[in-house]
Design goal:
This protein is α/β, with parallel strands linked by helices and 511 residues long. Helices cover 44% and strands 15% of the residues. The protein is built from 22 helices and 16 strands.
Length: 511
């Protein structure tokens, strides 16, 4: 299996090269040269497999055995998903709520967020590739190093840090918007004091942080000097790892429900990575209804599906937040531009060109189309796709928006229900959308729960303050109770400036 950039189809990379590179030199994102179809007997053979076993099956479809042997792949997966790192034997357990509504809990990893599923694996992949390369070095020859840089709106940072802390030959720099992540999220990052971990608090927005990271990757000389690696969901390995829990939940439902039931996944998303994993699962052949995008007030995705306009600022609105980003109760989704959306745009462009003019190099034409679209997003802040492209997008997805008051109401509704479920504000976005749409009787809704509620005390307590019996301390895991008082290490950057961040990397990166 080879991989190529969404903006340039000429060069192809191996899986190892793709993982270590992260972002393509032309600014594009890597996608597989083809999406493999599932084996003919997958429903029978995979039906009772565990999360690690499913991971091995799915990853092996995208990773050549010439790159990672089956033995090594199995060892990597089992080293990632085991009882020492995960608090539930199923890794991502499916919790029934009603007869046709289930909650897929993705927060049972080390940092209590769904990002652990991919970033624990990515950290091990980085180590595997570096160790393999360095084993072939002659005595005295310079070792290969990796400088990982990433931007976070909250959960990616801590999950990446926990996945890479103490790893040999790796330095990690995580940028977060100062004051725009929850106190627990900030503490989870900044209390990790391993020598290879560096937290950078930028006075700006998440999009500012993300733009700096992209600029660092685009700087050829800087990238070559520091051997940059990506942990954000621009890294293909993250998307691939997350496809597994869609399959796991499918089999869990199939074991208990009628065969005519159709699954509908509702995914709270900002950067489009989590739901893109579901899209790849669907393209591979996993049966499901339309994927449902659930956004907060930062609704660039919902607006696209409603209008066909992908624009940073709503051209129909007269109110504009500072920096274009609205601060909400679900901060991990407070983004202006959804980076992973570019990957979907490539597939939409390819199919649209194929339908209209099937001659010529379709892949190259799709790359050039996406390149033009993304240049327009960068230069003028918007694109308007043809109606034919919008219809293709609507075939596989639908989207809805949720505001803060609806988040509070949903947290309250689920806590005071007969089952009494405490949802974090991002999960509440998905739960609200699930209740707002009207599925057919045979539809089984699966709402992805992306974080533990204890990570977002402000949102949960504002929704449940005064409710009889509610005690936030009862929600708080033991690991969080001393977190806010622990020693911290963080470097503050006074403005979103690429050169200032470069200076931090130059000072602390191990070369």
């Amino acid at each position: 299996m080879k991989y190529f950039s969404t903006r340039g189809a000429l060069s192809e990379l191996t899986f190892e090269q793709t993982v270590l590179a992260g972002l393509a030199p032309d600014g594009g994102l890597y996608i597989p040269a083809s999406v493999p179809q599932l084996p003919a007997n997958w429903q029978k053979v995979w039906a009772n497999k565990s999360f690690p076993e499913l991971s091995i099956e799915i990853l092996s479809l995208f990773i050549s055995a010439d790159e990672i042997s089956q033995t090594d792949l199995a060892a990597l997966v089992h080293a990632t998903y085991n009882d020492s790192a995960w608090r539930h034997p199923d890794i991502t357990p499916l919790q029934p709520f009603t007869n046709n509504k289930y909650i897929l809990e993705l927060f049972h990893g080390p940092t209590y967020a769904f990002k652990d599923v991919a970033l624990q694996l990515l950290g091990n992949l980085f180590s595997y590739f570096l160790q393999r390369r360095n084993r072939t070095k002659s005595p005295g020859e310079e070792r290969e190093m990796l400088t990982v840089v990433g931007a976070t709106s909250g959960d990616t940072g801590s999950a990446a840090i926990y996945g890479l802390r103490g790893k040999p030959d790796v330095s990690i720099f995580i940028l977060h918007p100062k004051g725009r992540v929850s106190p627990v999220q900030e503490a989870q990052m900044t209390t990790v004091t391993d020598e290879n971990v560096h937290n950078i608090a930028v006075k700006g927005t998440f999009d500012d942080c993300q733009d700096i990271v992209k600029a660092l990757f685009a700087d050829t000389a800087f990238n070559a000097k520091h051997h940059l690696g990506a942990v954000n969901s621009i890294n293909w390995a993250r998307i691939l790892a997350q496809t597994v829990y869609y399959f796991l939940s499918y089999f869990a439902i199939r074991r208990t429900l009628p065969t005519d039931a159709e699954l509908q996944f509702i995914v709270p998303t900002g950067n489009f990575g989590d739901i893109l994993a579901g899209y790849y699962a669907k393209r591979m052949g996993l049966p499901m209804a339309k994927l449902v995008i659930a956004t907060n007030a930062n609704d660039i995705l919902t607006r696209f599906w409603k209008t066909g306009r992908y624009e940073k600022l709503d051209s129909n609105s007269s109110s504009v937040a500072v920096g274009g980003v609205v601060e909400t109760l679900s901060p991990a989704m407070d983004i202006l531009v959804s980076s992973n959306f570019e990957r979907l745009l490539w597939y939409l462009a390819f199919e649209d060109i194929q339908n209209i003019n099937p001659g010529g190099d379709l892949r190259e034409q799709a790359c050039q189309t996406v390149k033009g679209w993304m240049e327009n997003v960068k230069s003028v802040g918007r694109i308007v796709v043809p109606d034919s492209v919008l219809e293709l997008a609507r075939r596989d997805f639908t989207a809805e928006r949720v505001d803060d008051e609806q988040i509070r109401q949903t947290i309250l509704e689920y806590y005071t229900s007969a089952q009494s479920y405490t949802a974090d504000p991002h999960t509440a976005v998905g739960l609200h959308v699930a209740g707002a749409i009207s599925p057919q009787p045979n539809i089984i809704q699966i709402i992805l729960s992306t974080a533990h509620p204890a990570k977002f005390s402000e949102a949960v307590t504002s929704a449940l303050d005064g409710v009889p019996g509610f005690d936030f301390d009862a929600v708080l895991p033991e690991a969080f109770k001393t977190l806010l008082t622990m020693e911290r290490r963080v470097i503050e950057v006074e403005r979103p400036d690429v050169d200032l961040v470069k200076g931090v990397v130059e000072r602390f990166a191990v070369l």
